[in-house]
Amino acid sequence: MISRGLALISVMIAALSLFACAPSGGGDSGQARQSEAPTEEATLAPTEAPVPELEGTVDGADASDAHLVEVGEILYQQYCASCHGAELEGQPNWKQRDENGFLPAPPHDETGHTWHHPDEQLFEITKIGTEAFVGMGYRSNMIGFEDQLSDSEIWAVLAFIKSEWSPRIQRAQPK
Ligand code: HEC
Fold this sequence. Notes:
Layout: H1 2-21, H2 66-79, H3 81-84, H4 119-128, H5 130-134, H6 151-163, H7 167-172
Helix pairs in contact: 2-6, 4-6
The structure holds heme C.
């Protein structure tokens, strides 16, 4: 089937571009060593604000849709902020793999490379997780949220993330 073939090719391109973005490790050995304590823990304190209803089915991350962005922000704080940061700032030294070879959570603001990916890729990564997205045995701490968030809710989170980007970066994001 042509469309499956195309989908596969685009996933492979996406995987390649993920690798291209990812730093190859090493190199930064002069950098101050982080403390031994893992940085992820003790940050899981989701705000339990009630999530407003999304009307109907959402099929896209429209950053100019105020209601979608509002819902997305609440979901972001509950499901993503513990790793990606309340201000979308990501984890410290996010370009450096840890001792087990895992990358920390990158920022979703303009300093990261989230905006280098088209919406469809961001959606897939969020839905199925980076391991399934990249395939080929790649290991990652970015889990998939398909059991926790509906497709519409994933689009809402992405709409919020994009709404934090400047118009210039929003335009620069590949479509
Ligand atoms: C348990 C920590 C954790 C949580 C919670 C988390 N992420 Fe991630 N995320 C990561 C890590 C780690 C990576 C980097 C994965 C890699 O490249 O191996 C990542 C990568 C990503 C990427 C790819 C970014 C890029 O530039 O390639 C997207 C998109 C993403 N996360 C979206 C989300 C969204 C949306 C949520 C909330 C619904 C979320 N993440 C929640 C840890 C997390």
